[in-house]
Design a protein that fits this description.
34% helix; 6 helices; 2 domains; alpha/beta; 10 strands; 5-stranded parallel β-sheet
Amino acid sequence: MSDKTYSLTSRTVIGVVLLLVGVLFLLDNFAVFDAARILRYWPALLVLFGGLKAVQPGGSDGRLIGGTVAVIGIFMLLNRMDIVNIEFWALWPLLLIAAGAAIVLRTTSGSTVPADADATDVVSGTAVLGGMEQTCTTKHFRGGSISAVLGGHSVDLREADIPEGEDAVLEVFAFMGGVELRISQEWTVVLEGTALLGGFENKTHPRDAGKKRLILRGQAILGGVEIKN
């Protein structure tokens, strides 16, 4: 009989938070407890999620953004406790600073693409205040890095292929913008991204799951990443 191990993940935290909020509202409906007394301190959730992201293993850009969110949450919490007088709108530029720093870190840190990868086997680019469209048809796709900041980035990979038994790692970053990926139905998408007031949406329908995997890593902040066939 094997022993099960449990770890604190973002999904676990979300589940626990939803459970507790549900209990609070239930008690409030029966006039047992005033839920508003607790819910006014909701910025504590930003501290929790940001702190969790900051200490999780992964890229330094993700930890930077997580730490920034935690700092904003701390100041908002202190404001609601009447300890400081700083509103969110005075702090939101920190998100721009963190986003810019994350882009710099992504370009200066080591790439996840194998060193022997040919330039035609990867995709890369950054769309800032505008749009970018790319098409890749290589039969040995290895991944890459794409970003959208206040703009849109579209990549068509439907004619590309990943060698069977291999993985391709694609790093994505969307800040107040959108990334759209079109991929082959032969690929299986593995999402390892983090969404903050944004989202990752996987609309693909793989025919043969597991043999050819596209691993997506990165962040969607006030923006979105959409994957479809």
